From TrEMBL:
The keyword Transferase applies. CDD domains: AmyAc_Glg_BE, E_set_GBE_prok_N. GO terms for molecular function: 1,4-alpha-glucan branching enzyme activity. This is 1,4-alpha-glucan branching enzyme GlgB. NCBIfam families: branching_enzym (TIGR01515), PRK05402.1 (NF003811), PRK12313.1 (NF008967). Its EC number is 2.4.1.18. Pathway: Glycan biosynthesis; glycogen biosynthesis.
Amino acid sequence: MPRHDSTMIDLSGASADCLAICAARHPDPFAWLGQHVVGQQSVRRAFLPDAFRVEIQTPKGWIAMEPIHSDGVFVHQGEALPLPYRLRWEDRHGFHEHYDPYVFGPVLGDLEIYLFGEGRLYEAYHHLGAHRHRHEGVDGVSFVVWAPNAERVSVVGDFNDWDGRIHPMRARGLSGLWELFVPELAVGEIYKFEMRHRDSGVVFVKTDPYANAFELRPSTAARVVEDNHVWTDQSWMAARAGHDWQHAPMNIYEVHLGSWQRDAAGHFLSYETLAERLVTYCKEMGYTHIELMPVMEHPLDESWGYQVSGYFAPTSRFGTPDGFRAFVDHFHQAGIGVLLDWVPGHFPKDDWGLARFDGTALYEHADPREGEHSDWGTYIFNYGRNEVRGFLLANACYWADSFHIDGLRVDAVASLLYRDYSRPEGEWIPNQYGGRENLEAIDFLREMNVALNERHPGILTIAEESTSWPMVSRPTYVGGLGFSMKWNMGWMNDTLAYLEQDPIYRRFHQNDLTFSQLYAYTENFVLPLSHDEVVHGKRSLLDKMPGDVWQRFANLRLLFSYQFAHPGKKLNFMGNEFGQGREWDCGQALDWDLLNSDWHQGIRRLNRDLAYLYRDIPALHVQDFQGEGFSWVDCHDADQSVLSFLRWDRDGGFVLAAFNFTPVPRYNYRLGVPTAGRYHEIFNSDAGAYHGGNIGNLPQQAQARAWMGLPHSLELVLPPLGAIYLQLTGTG
């Protein structure tokens, strides 16, 4: 129905409303533009800058509208017209014909507005941003943005010559939400939001925080897209909901899509091509999951994706959102899970992005003591603001819902937990109780974990958390943060520090290897050898290893062998698995030609074989998080730098793992075993297939000689800088 107003028709000159529309200063363009009843008449007003003439479609045909302002204001009066009606006009670009956008009703419902204000609109991605849909019988695109401190917000793009006067939006009460349905707008259009600050009057342009796609960098406009992917992973998703991940093998391949491989010209591969190549490789290598460094849109390649500018958009570097959906689908068809790095701890200061979004500190804190990370040159989200918390909660749900993601690895959790994170004294603000804990961020993390698990059973959340914060991977109902798992940074740092020692000094550092058992079951741990360990002068894993070429490769094989035997799920960064020689460089592909060398091919074969052993032998994975799955054989032989332990399954099966961290073979080395019977090597890191020296053990019968508190024992040779796994294969 036409709306009523009390403004008298003035065809003789420009009213205050008319001037405000022309100046893009009208507080409520829907109150004046479109069709309104004035007295006993009906008036239609349209603003079409630079139009020569305008006509309106009526039941009697096309009728010319009368110009009342030279900037392009046109009026038609008479009987009320059925809505919606069409306009056609001519300007310097030619002829146009469209429905009048100012005759359509609101897009958002009251419930959505209420939940958004509460920070509980978990499906905000269906409502905010740009969405192609049918509204009041007409196809078009609805735009919704949150900008509570704007006097006026307009949608701008190629479709209106980036003129902020043409498509001003409707304010939805005091919610801070602005919306506009633009009829007949097509998929593929690029757009931004132009705003005028209510106090300063400054006019500026911002990209859409909820955009689902963007132009290729360095351009920053959002793009209207549709989800047309037809999923074929129903079996995977159904099985995931009931998957017992705590007792299953989990071997994660961490990948940066821009530098895993490139084409012959050095250009990025598409999502589809990457999926084909990566799935083939991951299946061959025995990975159960792939973890992608951030694929959310980001302006700078060198940020590796951690300076996110488009939280709801897969980066256009590799293709379209549907291309990324196909990527995930392809992995699921192959039985491989897909995890994403997610960055809710900070965002960049680019003036076209989230920073000072509506002219004020909207998504961030205004006070730099709360709102800035000086280390990263970024802003910190204001987790205490409902709409900001809701933005991040909806974003986590979006990747699970729209892209079937199997888990989120949450970046830099410590920076969220502590108000004084990386801050000197006096440059942070305590919480309401005087403490350093960020109470609002803690509540956010707990709500995120609960919301994801309730809405997407079987999904995983993994915390990159580098402190001793308690119960990170324990349920919220017992006081935990609710994560599924946590990176074991202590294990990683201690193990690498130990292996970087010259073997002659390792006897003084045995505690670096044994200390992890004091806390190994306080959390559900992932053992990471991540990208952070092979950049910024830290050297590649291979280059960290001491000694000559033989010793460096033997040490690296020993590192991976120790990782796969130690309790905890596994993660390795791309290139580690074949002994990349140089530090990782995001600007070029990995050095795949190294696989022409037996040294590097040996490292790759070792990682492949370890992955399959870990997957196929329950003792190596089923009790990764339980102390019952581990027992020492001997942790005290520091003088010979030897370590040995047992890994147990839940039925009494076990694997004996022994490690010699010196380049000296240990002959006639006696190890206790719990059971009589015949033992054989199921793995030897010094095997010839791995380009080792091939020093090992034939199958042997356990001797009835108690040793190390165990009733039986074996007399073994421990290869130099080598690891062996043994298993009981019979009683004869």
